[in-house]
Amino acid sequence: TARSMGIEIIDKKFANKMAKLTKKRKTALSKYDAAKAYPIVDAAKILKEISTTKFDSSIEMSVRLGIDVKQANQMVRGTVSLPHGTGKTIKVLVLCTPDKEEEAKAAGADFVGLDDYITKIKGGWTDMDVVIASPAVMGKVGALGKVLGPRGLMPNPKIGTVTQEVGKAVKEAKAGKIEYKADKDGIVHVSVGKVSFDSNKIADNVNEFMQTIVKAKPTASKGAYIHSVYMSATMSPSIQIETKSLGY
Predict the structure, then answer these.
(1) Which of 9, 29, 113, 197 could crosslink 201 through cysteines, CB 3.0-4.6 Å?
(2) What was the pLDDT predicted at 7?
(3) What average pLDDT does range 114-143 have in this prediction?
(4) 21-59 burial string, b = 16+ CB within 10 Å, else e?
């Protein structure tokens, strides 16, 4: 039929497009066994070799957990300070009262203020990576939920971004403190560094992140907790991590 012929043509076009896109991927896959799980340091070395981007690619971790995210008592969420940072320049906005502004600026905040930034954010401005707020201004900041919430930028006391110690929070964010949260499928995705990092530094960051994930296991979660761990670079194939090498 005309419909089946149309689908066949689309399938052929898709197949041809995929063939063009997978030349580099095939080369990358030839350098390691995609069915094998590797110790973290070995995986980091392979990842550095197969990354072909012209820019310094980010290293991403994907950890599948044995949790039921539909249950409130099985949510996995928190923060972790990576020993070697993420390799990314973090832009920090601090929304606070005037008496906290100098503390925030001295700690290295990129943007500090309140009303003017609230107006800008309501207008769609989101050129920041972390938003920190002092408790006294949360009455005003709460109105930004529709803009900041979907982007994961809404200040939250549970992850330390609503705090009286704004200077400390800024320093931690700048130094490589990252937030993690399981998605609807029970998978945690985070960036743990750059391909330019030494393999051992990548391993240090991964180990710190994984130790934090293990400690965050909900008491209500039963059975196997860590199902699988994969690491990849921007636009690279993923490499399975041998969980024994991480101590689990």
Answers:
(1) 197
(2) 46
(3) 96
(4) eeeeeeebeeebeeeebbebebbbbbbbebbeeeeebbb
- Output the pLDDT for position 28: 72
Q: Which of 186, 178, 194, 188 is nearest to 234 (CA)?
A: 194
190: β partners: 61
Which residue, among 11, 39, 43, 20, has the nearest Cα to 237 in the 3D structure?
43
Q: What is the pLDDT of residues 152-184, one digit of tens each?
A: 899 999 889 999 999 999 999 999 899 899 999
pTM (2 d.p.):
0.77
Mean pLDDT, residues 66-77 taken together: 92
In this predicted structure, the answer to whether residue 12 has a pLDDT above a threshold of 60 is: no
| Cα–Cα distance for residue pair 167/195, rounded to 1 Å | 30
Cβ neighbours of residue 208 closer than 8 Å, sequence gap 6 or more: 80, 81, 82, 83
In angstroms, the CA 210 to CA 232 distance is: 16
